[in-house]
Amino acid sequence: MVNPYKPIISKVKRVVEETPNIKTFTLAPEERIEFKTGQFVQFTVREVGEAPFTPSSSPFTRDEMDITIMEAGRVTKAIHCLQEGDLVGIRGPLGRGYPLEEFYGKEILVLGGGVGMAPLRSLLLTLIALKSKFKRILLLYGAKTPEDIVYKGQFADWKGEGVEIHRSVDRGDGVWKGRIGVVTVLFDEVKLNNEVAIVCGPPIMMKFGAFKLLEIGYKPENIYLSMEKNMSCGIGKCGHCALGPYFVCKDGPVFKYSEIKDIEEIWD
Ligand SMILES: Cc1cc2nc3c(=O)[nH]c(=O)nc-3n(C[C@H](O)[C@H](O)[C@H](O)COP(=O)(O)OP(=O)(O)OC[C@H]3O[C@@H](n4cnc5c(N)ncnc54)[C@H](O)[C@@H]3O)c2cc1C
Ligand code: FES
């Protein structure tokens, strides 16, 4: 039987500085890790510890995995010190990803904020790879400042693949010519059929993003949110990631709004 706690040794192949506090690490695992977009992995730095992250690359890229990481505390600080050639551990995939088949034939709105764009990049690359199955793909993305926008060089490629892209920043920098304001200001400039919406970002953005979607007519069962909780085992054994009646590591991290709408700690 496979030991779920045993990490797969992975080499750091590339490190890209996305913003002053976010880097993307391309890892080459010794054994192939097949994941569904939206699932997560536990990333181990030897002698420091492990933390959960969602791969930001396409699940169709088999031999490498990108993980985009914001420096937040102890483990992420150690990750940010990694260099090309260093060895780390990856455990997973874990949890429940996006139910892609439920999205077929529909208009897909992807709503992202900050480093929340990491799982959404994986999702967008998947949607692009399967684009004939979807009616329309839109991305609304918000960052604090233009400097904080992740994947800066990649939006043009996604646009070229037919994704409709709208971006905003909370504060401009004198050069920024786009929208200024929190990401929900972008709803003014798009006409939507309110079919499927997928949201990932900081808790405040998830909350107001979900409320806005409900206000404009999305059904609670068609809004998907990626939830974050502190984790330990990652496989539903320790209870660290309890969220209402769920364990985020096992029942999530992707939830429908209708599943989590009554959990006060999320919406208070
Ligand atoms: C399913 C899932 C997927 C995720 N995917 C991603 C992803 O793709 N990319 C990503 O960047 N993150 C992701 N995260 C979040 C990521 O796991 C956390 O940022 C990470 O675990 C933080 O670990 P850490 O040891 O660096 O921080 P910790 O040391 O645990 O610190 C975490 C928080 O505590 C605060 N803190 C730390 N030290 C102190 C202190 N001394 N005093 C006061 N406050 C302090 C930090 O500011 C931070 O907010 C995901 C989380 C989950 C659950
Ligand atoms: S992290 Fe142990 S139950 Fe979820």
Give a structural overview.
The chain has 8 helices and 15 strands. By secondary structure, the protein is an alpha/beta fold. It folds into 2 domains: 8-94, Translation factors (Elongation Factor Tu (Ef-tu), domain 3), CATH 2.40.30.10; 100-226, Rossmann fold (3-Layer(aba) Sandwich). A 7-stranded mixed β-sheet has the order 10-9-8-7-11-12-15, sandwiched between helices. A 6-stranded antiparallel β-sheet has the order 4-3-6-1-2-5, with helices on one face. It has a two-stranded antiparallel sheet with strand order 13-14. A hairpin with a 2-residue loop joins strand 13 (242-243) and strand 14. The longest helix is centred in the middle third of the chain and has 13 residues, at 117-129. It is globular, with a radius of gyration of 18 Å. The model has no long low-confidence stretch (mean pLDDT 96). It binds flavin-adenine dinucleotide (FAD) and FE2/S2 (inorganic) cluster. Residues 40, 51-54, 68-70, 72-76, 115, 118, 228-229, 231, 253 line the site of flavin-adenine dinucleotide.
